[in-house]
Amino acid sequence: MHEVIGTPNLTELLSTWGYVGVFLFVFIGNLGIPVPEESVMLVAGFLAGRSILDLATVYAVVVASAVTGDCCGFLIGRTGGQRLILRLSQNFSAIRNRYDRLQVFFQAHGSKAVFMARFVTGIRFMAGPMAGAAGMPFLRFLGWNFLGAVVWCTLVVTIGYLVGDELYHAISAAHAAGRWIAAVVLAVVLVTYLFWWRERQDEATTKPGS
After folding, report:
1. Phi then psi dihedrals of residue 194, to 5 deg
2. Helix axes of 55-76 and 37-49: crossing angle, nearest 10 degrees
3. Average pLDDT of 30-39?
4. What span, in angstroms and rounded, lies between the C-alpha atoms of 204 and 210?
5. Which DSSP state fits 137?
6. What distances in angstroms separate CA 11 from CA 46, 161, 162, 170, 173, one per listed residue?
7. Does residue 5 carry a pLDDT above 50?
8. Using an 8 Å Cβ cutoff, are 71 and 60 in contact?
9. 181: Cβ–Cβ under 8 A, 6 or more apart, which residues?
10. Per-residue pLDDT at 31
11. By the 8 A CB rule, do 157 and 48 touch?
């Protein structure tokens, strides 16, 4: 088996634990526990490229674990966990900065902030608790959460699958490029929505009696 430059321990760990290891790492990362979840997904894609793991199964596992982790965060926020985040943000400047940034996200984008937060390392785990505490309907949260997980997780796994032995550089690039990817994806979503909205308006104006 080829050794991934800079990540031999993680490669060996995921080779041993397989899909269970991938699920656990991504799940706890979405709960806010500091684990390198992007690196895990990249390595999982790399292992799929070496036929050690099955690519389709990796896609399913990372999306399921990311969505499940965020939904647990949503339930924590809905049942009072937001007070804990506020308390932590008052005592730790790093958490306070992330909390403030995510508040700006929610104010600017509303429900779409759940989708956008998926692409920003360090604040994505706070989107679920904040959405739950804000009273966002669960099905709306689930929809944006699932969409974000599908786009981000499959993209990261695919990069790991394609880059091969250049995985170390891909891991560094994934951390640096998160915001740019988020901006591009948001632009595509907004343009798609505007086209859909315009078509609906045109249909309404062409109906008899309108």
Report:
1. -65, -40
2. 160
3. 77
4. 7
5. -
6. 9, 13, 16, 15, 18
7. no
8. no
9. 119, 152, 155
10. 78
11. yes
